[in-house]
Specification:
InterPro entries: HDAC_classIV (IPR044150), HDACs (IPR000286), His_deacetylse_dom (IPR023801), His_deacetylse_dom_sf (IPR037138), Ureohydrolase_dom_sf (IPR023696). Belongs to the histone deacetylase family. Keywords: Hydrolase. This is Histone deacetylase. It is a single chain. The chain has about 280 residues and is of the alpha/beta class. The chain has a single domain, classed as Histone deacetylase domain (Arginase, Chain A, 3-Layer(aba) Sandwich). Helices cover about 45% and strands about 10% of the residues. The protein contains ten helices and six strands; from the N terminus they run H-H-H-H-H-E-H-E-H-E-E-H-E-H-E-H. The chain has helices at about 1-15, 30-35, 40-45, 50-60, 65-85, 115-125, 140-145, 185-200, 225-245, 260-280; strands spanning about 90, 130-135, 155-160, 175, 205-210, 250. The protein has a six-stranded parallel sheet with strand order 1-6-5-2-3-4, sandwiched between helices. Helix 9 runs parallel beside helix 10.
Length: about 280
Amino acid sequence: MRKFSGLHQYLIQKGIIDEKDVVEPTMADFTELNLAHTSRYSHGMWSGDLSRKEIRKLGLPWSKGLAIRSRLAVRGTMNAAIMALQDGIAGNLAGGTHHSMPDGGEGFCVFNDVAVAIKVLQQTKWASKVLVIDCDVHQGNGTAEIFKNDPDVYTFSIHGEKNYPFVKPPSTYDIGLPDATGDKEYQQVLTDALDKIFNDFTPDLVFYLAGIDPLETDHFGRLALTLNGLRERERIVIETVTQKELPLVLLLSGGYAPSITQTVEAHAIMYEQAVEISKHYFH
C-alpha cells in the first residue's frame, strides 16, 4: 500500500507532475459502483459483511479504511477518464484493479475501477466505444467477464500465460506469453497487437493498465523485462494512442518489485513517458 503515497511524492519531488495538477477524489457512489458490481457485494464491502471465504479470495484483510480507499480509487479513475476526454491525457495514481468481479473482489482488487468508469461514461454518453489495453502480467479476468457481452468495449490483455488467474475468461483479445519473455519479443508482440486492434476497432477513449509486474525483478511476474524494456513498452503504448489523437487514461495496476523504492521508480516511468510524449501532441 505504501507505493501509492510514495509514487505521489516521487512524481512531485522529481518535477514530473505539479502539485496543482493533482486532484483529490471523493468516494464513488453506490449507484456508480452498482453499474459494474452487485449491490450485495458493494454494500457488503462497505459494511464488512462479507464471508471469510470472500475476504480470503480478495487477499486483503477487510477494514473500513480499505473500503474508503477503494471507493476513492474508483472515483480517481472516473475523474481521470473525464479529464482525459477534455485534456487528451490524464492518470490515476492508483487504479487498474482488473481482477474484481461483479459479485466479489479477488487478487488484491476490491472494485473494478475501469469497469465502473466505463459504465458511467456509457450511461452519461461521455463515451460509447472504449478500448482497454491491459499490460499487467496477470490477465484482466474481471474486466473480461464484465464486458463479455458488450461489443462497444474492446478488452485487450497481454500477460503471462502460466500466471494467475488460472481460469481466464476470454477478453476480446488475449495474448498469453511464455515464462521469461524478454524485451525484444515482448515489444514486437505488443506492437503487432496494437496494429491489429486499431485496424479492427476505433475507440472514443483508451484505458491503459500499466502494471510493472512483467519486470524480471518482480516477485510474482515470471516474465523478464528490464527497466529499459518497460520504458519502451510505455513509449509504444502512449505514443500509439496519442498519435491517433485519442484520449488516454493511465492506471497503475500491479507491481511487486523487491523494494518500495524500486516499485515507485518503475511506476513513475509511465508518467515520465506520458509527460515527454504529450509535449509533442498536446499544448
